[in-house]
């Protein structure tokens, strides 16, 4: 089964970018020409013959614990980048490791950043050039978080391949590579830009994009990103993402952790200061209480509102998937807008306090609260950061605390929204129509893929997000997977499409 | 140096219980008889000859990570109990392992409890019987918490022996055993009751005390506990301890941890519910906001207030030891009362949220906040537990949350206060006077040693707390140690005491 679905995933991309190519280069021409059909037969044969390899590669990649959120794991990030480079070179591509400089940690320590892969395959000036972006770093994962299977040992259960990075984003990156590999003669020129720091905000990638704008990107026509999932069981194109700023609220108090029996009652504890600070951020309705932070949220237009009507989103099903009695909103449209086009604040945890099972009667000397704010047009991360810091300092001043407060922020990725009239989106909608025989859902993504915004702003090229993952893939969660079902339906479409020539 | 101070510690106890014996058995007789002096010379010679062994034993005991707060470490607790039993048997004592039954964990799982050691040495009915209590379990410790040396490898720096359990309570337990070992003919009968669950509230010990009240305790005259430290550089006797209840506030929400980008804004997050709950417990002045919880605090009498005048407590020095700009109170007396005779609430941490370094954009599905309340006469732990639960349920109802709240409490140890007119305290004060040549400071202990209260209430015997550890030993903290300085001054006192015969 697993071998089958990888083939299907790859075939989908093969068809998708063949269609993208034909659609974009000559909008009037039909991709359903005998030539195209013959080429596809040949391609699919190659894919079927190599499925075992494709799955084995995903398994090898998943074993690498390339958790970029912990800089002590950046060695693993470099390892997976090297594996990626070797794969591209084996396929006849050329690879350049771009140095993106250093990064200062919250501790103040400066560390070198893992490089970014810039790759390309032999170029035909007559063909359009497609640049594929992906990332090979992952979120943390451990069995203790509640995984059913080892997150770093790709395991299939009932047609799902479970493993950290299966859908975010190692699986899709490999799918693109397998598609390229499957071609005898590829209809577009291919470039690749693969990074290892997406999960922490793509340090250095923006600067690199500016630096190579006139070289690497000069002849690029389209940039495609497959780093998100469908919203429902229906195929989708994504036209917007939320930005994000990640905040560290450090309260630093006594010299040592103390016994709460010995000092309790005489010391203003960093932990109670921090709880008061975190408690001032949002109310129980999810409303962000930081003054002015939501002032710049773009108003909802009637055209935008209408897009939500077409989305086959089932509120009851989503409740049962999420395992919640109710969401903060009452209607499908409100819930989707809360996730896609409105800001949100999540408190992720506290570092430095007692977090293990059991009991410990400690007064932690220093605690760091962590939260992030998802941002939407037209919010501006530096402005949000300033307002959050002012707010926390103001609240802290009311605590009359002898402790020291330090608020720092990382990431600060801008939100992104595309123009649906852009030729690539027109082509993309046509591709979905031809491959799946249905209208694509035009969706937004609540999570943050900063480079969509950055690529569009810096290169001025057409950027499209083409989701491959299923709506229930659980990126960043326990039991992250790639589900075969979203790829099975395309297969039928392909066959219909081929035999109906 | 380290060998020297262990000798001094042991000599102090040798003298102390010789004096306790003589003081208690015949208040008029002086312990400073030639016989006593001769016996002491002989004893001290034995101690000097065996110091290397004494230090080595403490080192061996410290290597055992008997962290009772984590029930998965109870195997290590049993290991240190067995080492203790072997030591007593080697000294000619008899050991009985008392079964104290099972314990239900917050998870609902039931686990067997480590046994309690009941030991005694050959009995002379003409002598008074002294029962020594101690515990050999410890608080958690790891380098990452900020230890300078390996907490489980006893390390001396400048006359301090650093290691988890050095002062709380493995060191003092060994000191008593070494004192007993040093005697040829011991002036009192010795019984020992040694447990391994003190740090979690001595599960089962209260029931055991009741069970053996008419057997093991029948012929006991005095119970002595050395499980606390002096308040200052001056010797002290302790006449009160605070009680404690440890609370788990579990908020259980979605089925899985979610990506804050995907679900943020649509879900009422368990973490924000928990922050609101924890934020409702106390204000920035340290005042406990749970209605009615402090109603039963005993009023301060004039006699009690006077005791605080004699305590050579230096507020400025304590600030620099603690590393705080100021305490929650302004005067020495207020700070001591806040630590000793008034209740306090400390928030220790959160389990289930992201607590590691770096960034993780997660919405934790289930989080458990942990806090404890130190209690004083005449607060009643079950009453406090009821009021805390009512308060948290009331606050939670205002959050209109779809999540599930579960509040559980463990420990529930009662506060304790002794009668200073008790013969053992009179004897104790005389012993300090004779050994140290100064008036003892009569102090209370902010931390919780539940068995003092339990022994006194259940057995009706005279219970005294005789601190051995230094005021800056840092029990429960990083770099816990036993400091030689508090034991150096007694040495001079001993010599003065001996030569002045």
From TrEMBL, chains A, B:
One of its GO terms (cellular component) is cytosol. Residues 239-393 form the Peptidase M20 dimerisation domain. SUPFAM superfamilies: Zn-dependent exopeptidases (SSF53187). GO terms for biological process: proteolysis. The keyword Metal-binding applies. Keywords: Hydrolase, Metal-binding, Protease, Signal. InterPro entries: Cyt/Met_Dipeptidase (IPR051458), Peptidase_M20 (IPR002933), Peptidase_M20_dimer (IPR011650). One of its GO terms (molecular function) is metal ion binding. Residues 1-24 form the signal peptide. This is Peptidase M20 dimerisation domain-containing protein. The gene is CNDP1.
């Amino acid at each position: 089964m697993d071998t089958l679905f990888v083939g299907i995933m790859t075939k989908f991309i093969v068809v998708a970018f063949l269609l993208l190519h034909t659609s974009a280069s000559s909008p009037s021409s039909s991709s359903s020409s005998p030539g195209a059909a013959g080429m596809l037969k040949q391609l699919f044969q190659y894919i079927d013959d190599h499925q075992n390899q494709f799955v084995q590669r995903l398994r090898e990649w998943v074993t690498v614990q390339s958790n970029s959120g912990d800089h002590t794991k950046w060695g693993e990030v470099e390892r997976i980048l090297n594996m990626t480079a070797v794969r591209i070179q084996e396929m006849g591509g050329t690879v350049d490791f771009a140095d993106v400089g250093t990064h200062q940690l919250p501790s103040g320590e400066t560390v070198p950043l893992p490089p970014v892969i810039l790759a390309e395959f032999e170029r035909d000036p007559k063909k359009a050039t497609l640049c594929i972006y992906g990332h090979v770093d992952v979120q943390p994962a451990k069995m203790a978080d509640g995984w059913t299977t080892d997150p770093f040992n790709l395991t299939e259960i009932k047609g799902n391949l479970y493993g950290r990075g299966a859908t975010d984003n190692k699986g899709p990156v490999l799918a693109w590579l397998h598609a390229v590999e499957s071609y005898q003669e590829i209809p577009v020129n291919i470039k690749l830009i693969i990074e290892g720091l997406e999960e922490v905000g793509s340090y250095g990638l923006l600067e690199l994009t500016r630096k190579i704008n006139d070289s690497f990107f000069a002849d690029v026509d389209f940039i495609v990103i497959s780093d998100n999932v469908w919203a429902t069981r229906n195929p989708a194109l994504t036209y917007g993402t939320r930005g994000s700023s990640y905040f560290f609220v450090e309260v630093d108090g006594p010299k040592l952790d103390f016994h709460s029996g010995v000092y309790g009652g005489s010391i203003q504890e960093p932990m109670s200061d921090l709880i008061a600070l975190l408690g001032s951020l949002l109310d129980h309705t999810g409303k962000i209480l930081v003054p002015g932070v939501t002032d710049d949220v773009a108003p909802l237009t009637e055209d935008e509102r209408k897009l939500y009507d077409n989305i086959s989103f089932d509120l009851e099903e989503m409740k049962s998937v999420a395992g919640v009695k109710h969401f903060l909103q009452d209607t499908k449209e409100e819930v989707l807008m809360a996730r896609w086009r409105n800001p949100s604040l999540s408190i992720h945890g506290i570092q430095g306090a007692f977090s293990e099972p059991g009991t410990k009667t400690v007064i932690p000397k220093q605690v760091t609260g962590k939260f992030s704010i998802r941002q939407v047009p037209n919010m501006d991360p530096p402005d949000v950061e300033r307002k959050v810091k002012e707010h926390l300092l103001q609240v802290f001043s009311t605590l009359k605390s002898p402790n020291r407060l330090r608020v720092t922020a990382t990431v600060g990725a801008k939100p992104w929204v595309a123009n649906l009239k852009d030729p690539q989106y027109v082509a993309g909608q046509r591709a979905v129509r031809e491959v799946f025989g249905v209208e694509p859902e035009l969706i937004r993504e609540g999570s943050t893929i900063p480079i969509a915004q950055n690529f569009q702003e810096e290169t001025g090229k057409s950027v499209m997000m083409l989701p491959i993952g299923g709506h229930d893939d659980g990126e960043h969660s326990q039991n992250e997977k790639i589900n075969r079902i979203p790829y099975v339906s395309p297969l039928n479409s392909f066959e219909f499409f081929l035999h109906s020539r």
